[in-house]
Amino acid sequence: MTDQAYTPPEVWTHDAENGGKFANINAPTAGSRESRELPVGDHPFQLYSLATPNGVKANMILEELIEAGHPLDYDAWLINIGEGEQFTSGFVDINPNSKIPALVDRTGKNPIRVFESGAIMLHLAEKFGAFLSDTPAGRAEMLSWLFWQIGSAPSIGGGFGHFYAYAPEKYEYPINRYAMETKRLFDVADKRLAETDYLAGNDYTIADMAAFAWLAPFVEGTIYNDAHTFLSIREYKNVARWANAIALRPAVKRARMVNKTWGEENEQVPNRHSAADFAGKSL
Questions:
Q1: 19-30 residue pLDDT tens
Q2: Which of the residues 37, 108, 164, 265 has an alpha carbon 20 to 30 A from that of 190?
Q3: pLDDT tens for residues 172-199?
Q4: CA-CA distance, 7 to 115, in Å (whole number)?
Q5: The sheet that has 102-105: what strands, in order across it?
Q6: Whole-number Cα distances in Å, 75 to 42, 44, 50, 257
Q7: How many of the other CB atoms lie within 10 Å of CB of 223?
Q8: 244 and 197 in contact (C-beta within 8 Å)?
Q9: Closest by alpha carbon to 258, among 96, 86, 70, 74?
């Protein structure tokens, strides 16, 4: 079936009434919409986020560093993007792009802001010398797979996810276009994981954390309605093996609960301030 033809106007204008699920917060402008400071906890790292795939990436590197015995702790504050909290002045000060996650590193004399999930992961991994690679070739491979995921996420989320699950009307062309690209990306990962245990080689790195946060929900069937069936995700057996193994890691189990406000109550830690916040949770 051919989608109804659309003739673009000479000059685009914002149609606030036709934006789908997030029409109430999306706009073609940047900057704060409300004056409100962010809370600050006692720890040297302050994370402001939500447990979306991009948010889970930052949670994973922090919890993995703690699990590995590195001397750090952090506060994770919930940012409700559905209510537009990413557009408050405090949040915009640390991320002018108004997207979660955003981190403030207060370990030095002056606070350092770090925004975008890949930047947060790389900043923390380099700071603690963990989940990277010891060789130039290994580092190049790790960075290549890390940025492969960063570059791929818009096609999976803003592309497939939006048109398949969130758009006000379903149209064949964009769903087919982004379904094809999402399956191609799964095939890239599946072929690589047929060769190696992890994306960058034999060692678990931040490249795996970044990709896991997006690919695992498809494997588990917990994202974008029935996307697992629609995309025949069961075909990608190497991705499933890799994702299932990573999901069992204690740090990953904790990370997926941080800043989460949906699902089973014993799997939610809306705001995280210490390891004690996981007491009684389903780990």
A1: 667 777 889 999
A2: 164
A3: 999 999 999 999 999 999 999 999 999 9
A4: 37
A5: 74-78, 45-49, 102-105, 112-115
A6: 7, 8, 13, 14
A7: 19
A8: no
A9: 74
